[in-house]
Amino acid sequence: MRRFARTVVTAALAAAVVAGTAGWASADAQAAVTGPPPGTAAWRADSVSGRPLPDPARATPREVARFFAGLDEARARGLVRSHPLVVGNLDGAPLPLRYEANRLAVLATGEARFASLAEPGRQILAFDPRGRGQVAEVFGDLGRAAHVSVIVPGSDNDAAGHDRRRTPYTGPAGMARALRAAAGDATAVIAWTGYTTPVGVGLDAAEDRLAAAGAVRLARLTEGLDAVGAPDPVLFCHSYGSVVCGLAARHTDATDIVALGSPGMRAGTVAGLHTNARVWAARGPSDWIANVPNVEFAGLGHGADPTSAAFGARRIPAGDVSGHTGYFTPGTQSLKAFAAIATGETR
């Protein structure tokens, strides 16, 4: 009875805190970018040798892969030049074509905030300039990798801030670089800022609306990896990104799902995720996420603490992690454990 009373009080407090931010949080509410990429109408109106092009909204990644397998190089590259935003975001399309298409798409925006994404050597797997911008970047050789990991970041991430060089190891690209350096060259890591993230701490961060839209996109990404013959991935889900992973879990073929600095995964236990993946959790001693009530009340909050014994995830040592974003800092116990999970050493 006491536990029930505490839960009710905590839930009420959480609701009051979030409701108190509604004045400013509502003004900054984010509209989730969903659906096929810009340029889809022109793509649908085009054809190759009289054959219709695969519909970005309906074709499966495997159907897309079969379509491109039937094209010669000249026709495939012609589609890249004519429809870079579509080809660049088309799961199942050959990786080199997507990288080239996204380089052209970034340059075509003419926007300084995206310019660094077109630098030589960058492997941009997806790019969408709508809203704050979305991007996915590959570190390593995804076509030949023995292992693949995906970084799913949390709030305040977008295409413009995807690679914060002044704060290495904390942004999506920095986390991906650190993980690949620790895991070795046989591992490819995707920094996936592929959904509209919340901005700041407010209603968007307390609800699962943006996470639900992101979960659909994350599941599609893993389908696309299958279609090009990549290994089943490990998902590293930071902060609000763990809400995305929790909602996507049953729809992916991930071997492992790692929640770090998580406010909850919209499930009461590992079994509630309905996944065959092994589920891991980490939280550092100074991570402020520990102060977020682990409740789900009237649509607010994300449920049980993934690091609690009752949740049932495997614990990752994180005693030397500093703050909310220090999990990928070189030399930490958490990064060493992440590398072992990424390379399958813990199986």
Walk me through this protein's architecture.
The chain has 347 residues and is α/β, with parallel strands linked by helices. It has helices spanning 2-20, 22-27, 40-45, 61-69, 73-82, 84-88, 95-109, 172-183, 203-206, 209-227, 241-248, 333-342; strands at 47-48, 51-52, 123-128, 134-139, 147-152, 187-193, 233-238, 256-260, 278-282, 314-315. α8 (172-183) crosses α12 and α10 (209-227) crosses α11. The N and C termini lie far apart (41 Å).
Query: What is the string of SSEs from the N terminus onward?
Result: HHHEEHHHHEEEHEHHEHEEEH
**Widest sheet, order of strands:** 3-4-6-5-7-8-9-10
Instruction: Please report the total strand number as a whole number.
Output: 10
Shape: globular
Query: How does the major sheet shape up?
Result: 8 strands, mixed
What radius of gyration results from the CA coordinates? 20 Å
Helix share bin:
25-40%
Count, helices: 12
Q: N- to C-terminal separation? A: 41 Å
Mean pLDDT reading: 91
Low-confidence stretches: 1-27
What structural class do you assign from the helix and strand content?
A: alpha/beta
Strand content: 5-15%
